[in-house]
């Protein structure tokens, strides 16, 4: 008789469902990447292999402009969000547990639970009044909005790392004459680094592909890469968008690989 | 206060509140630890040993009472301002630092000059014989080696007092014995006061200058190993330290009546009334039945331990006594079960317990 231990693979239909889910996850991406190498204009009819869409995308002045804007917003928003999230995570894991703990978690993770469209509308109204009062129209609104919804994405991995950390190490540091600041600087922070980097990358990627909130908050001429692609695709379907998407995908893969290698080396 | 006390606890009390429950982890403990001594806190799990160490190290503040260092009140001083270092049970080595950096951590935090750190780290590593592994990370070391790094790290800043919370409990028996003598050697060489926590009574007896026996948050007895072993103050201490026979008796006029009409002489200073007698198994003698020996017993099971055997003896009223019998090379024979034998106690071996 075979092993009788529980194994998910023995549930009827398990393999079928697994394969379907994988197809749903990856088939569209595979097709997107494949058509970025299509010779023709179509994103539905394969006409032969070519790299031509990449130089076309790269030489498009507008693509460059929106890419730079996206990267600027994502970098600044991710950095601020990660800093805030690190402090929030320290505040929620490195002090005495209080009654309102769960409430605080909910408050920090608010952007994950409130529908994005609600946040978008709220920000639109809020920023509109500031715009009227100050006359400032710049990129700061977009950065502020991105920072806000990136915080929970940065917060989650950092908090997970802090909670998994042995607090005896911090006690040991204090025992060895470290002040609070030295304990943080020489023990907590280095051990927290993989969590911070993960948080930073999650925040960066989340900001990079945001559409809804950006659409509501941006001023005229402040398209980011995703809103630009959306506008372009509305006008005419072009394999240029596939090429840009493929490059974005590549960036994500590179970031993830870098993170993986980085954390593995530390262990 | 005692003039030579380096650490003193005065009525130190610690109460933990978890939800509705309150736990009295330390119940007004007073103790004075002498400069340069090897002091052991001994007691069963949960009796408050770690809590007392944490109060001394400054990781916890007492609910009431005081902690003094060289006569100065340090009750509210944070751990980084106390010249007291800890060897943690889990070692708590910094995983992102090398052995060398771990050992130098305390000195670095104190702002000691780099060249001096190098020298002191080198000396600390040679004390624990780990010079060759200085550039490894803690994960690349065996348990015993990690233990020695933890020791070197705590010793490097030359603390006045070293706290060791069951530092040997994770090691196997052989390594444990090795580290026991290593610790004794270090303590002797450095002259630092060691406060050592264990729940292993043998470890406590062999290593300590003095032992404090704890139970349920209270210190029951403080004394040299010999004193604690030979003159336990109560039933708990007698039972916890070594093996002991506890015999109910009626004490009057320096005589303890055990079984009906059989009484044995005890210390005249002993308390009177219904008490428990404590006698160590090695002080119980099996002798031939004769008129000189009032106490008789029936031999029960015996258990062989190599160098000696433990023989069960049943008194007339059913009280069970264990006698330790040396197994001589010639094969000193153990009386067979059922034999009627006489029982005698070594002079001064019978202790009347307060409770
Ligand atoms: N932070 C805490 N919160 C609540 N109760 C605690 C806390 N720390 C210790 N206690 C309780 O205090 C009592 C004494 O604990 P302590 O850790 O000092 O025991 P111990 O003698 O070191 O035991 P062991 O030999 O198992 O390490 C225990 O009942 C424990 O449950
Ligand atoms: Mg303990």
TrEMBL record, chain A:
Pfam families: BPD_transp_1
Boundaries of every ABC transmembrane type-1 domain copy: 67-262
Superkingdom, taxonomy of origin: Bacteria
Signal peptide limits: none
CDD domains: TM_PBP2
Transmembrane regions listed in the UniProt entry: 12-37, 71-91, 112-133, 139-158, 186-208, 243-262
Chief location category: membrane
Subcellular location: Cell inner membrane; Cell membrane
Family the UniProt entry places it in: Belongs to the binding-protein-dependent transport system permease family. CysTW subfamily.
Protein name (record): Spermidine/putrescine transport system permease protein PotC
Native organism taxonomy: Bacteria, Pseudomonadati, Pseudomonadota, Alphaproteobacteria, Rhodobacterales
């Amino acid at each position: 008789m075979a092993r009788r231990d529980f194994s998910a693979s023995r549930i009827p239909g398990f393999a079928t469902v697994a394969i379907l889910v994988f197809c749903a996850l990856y088939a569209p991406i595979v097709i997107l990447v494949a058509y970025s190498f299509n010779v023709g204009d179509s994103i539905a009819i394969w006409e032969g292999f070519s790299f031509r869409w990449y130089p076309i995308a790269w030489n498009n002045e507008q693509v460059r402009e929106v890419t730079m804007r996206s990267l600027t917003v994502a970098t600044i928003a991710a950095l601020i969000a990660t800093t805030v999230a690190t402090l929030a995570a320290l505040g929620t894991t490195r002090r005495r547990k209080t009654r309102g703990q769960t409430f605080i978690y909910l408050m920090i993770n608010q952007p994950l639970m409130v529908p994005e469209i609600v946040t978008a509308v709220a920000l639109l109204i809020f920023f509109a009044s500031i715009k009227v009062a100050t006359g400032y129209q710049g990129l700061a609104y977009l950065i502020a909005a991105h920072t806000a919804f990136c915080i929970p994405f940065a917060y989650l991995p950092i908090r997970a790392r802090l909670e998994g950390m042995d607090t005896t190490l911090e006690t040991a540091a204090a025992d060895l004459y470290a002040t609070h600041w030295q304990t943080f600087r020489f023990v907590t922070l280095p051990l927290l680094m993989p969590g911070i980097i993960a948080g930073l990358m999650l925040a960066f990627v989340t900001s990079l592909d945001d559409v809804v909130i950006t659409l509501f908050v941006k001023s005229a001429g402040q398209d980011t890469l995703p809103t630009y692609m959306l506008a372009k695709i509305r006008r005419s379907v072009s394999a240029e968008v596939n090429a840009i998407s493929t490059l974005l995908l590549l960036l994500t893969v590179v970031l993830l690989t870098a993170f993986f290698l980085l954390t593995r080396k530390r262990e | 206060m005692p003039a030579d006390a380096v650490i003193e606890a005065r009525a130190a009390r610690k109460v933990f509140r978890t939800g509705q429950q309150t736990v009295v982890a330390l119940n007004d403990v007073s103790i004075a630890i002498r400069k340069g001594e090897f002091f052991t806190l001994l007691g069963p799990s949960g009796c408050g040993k770690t809590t007392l160490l944490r109060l001394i190290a400054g990781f916890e503040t007492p609910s009431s009472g005081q902690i003094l260092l060289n006569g100065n009140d340090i009750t509210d001083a944070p751990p980084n301002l106390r010249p007291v270092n800890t060897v943690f049970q889990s070692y708590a080595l910094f995983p992102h630092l090398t052995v060398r950096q771990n050992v130098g951590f305390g000195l670095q935090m104190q702002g000691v000059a780099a060249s001096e750190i190098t020298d002191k780290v080198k000396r600390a590593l040679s004390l624990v014989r780990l010079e060759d592994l200085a550039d490894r990370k803690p994960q690349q070391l065996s348990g015993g080696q990690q233990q020695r790094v933890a020791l070197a790290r705590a010793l490097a800043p030359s603390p006045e007092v070293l706290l060791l919370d069951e530092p040997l409990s994770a090691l196997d028996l052989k390594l444990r014995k090795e580290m026991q003598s290593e610790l004794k050697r270090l303590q002797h060489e450095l002259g630092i006061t060691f406060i050592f926590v264990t729940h292993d009574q043998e470890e406590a007896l062999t290593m300590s200058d003095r032992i404090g026996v704890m139970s349920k948050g209270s210190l029951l007895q403080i004394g040299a190993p010999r004193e604690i072993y030979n003159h336990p103050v109560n039933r708990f201490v007698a039972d916890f330290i070594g093996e002991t026979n506890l015999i109910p008796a009626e004490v009057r006029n320096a005589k303890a009546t055990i079984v009906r009409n059989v009484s044995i002489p005890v210390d005249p200073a002993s308390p009177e009334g219904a008490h428990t007698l404590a006698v160590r198994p090695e002080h119980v003698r099996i002798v031939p039945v004769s008129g000189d020996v009032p106490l008789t017993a029936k031999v029960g099971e015996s258990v062989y331990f190599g160098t000696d055997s433990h023989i069960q003896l049943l008194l007339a009223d059913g009280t069970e006594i264990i006698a330790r019998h040396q197994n001589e090379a010639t094969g000193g024979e153990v009386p067979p079960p059922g034999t009627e034998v006489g029982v005698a106690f070594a002079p001064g071996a019978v202790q009347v317990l307060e409770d």
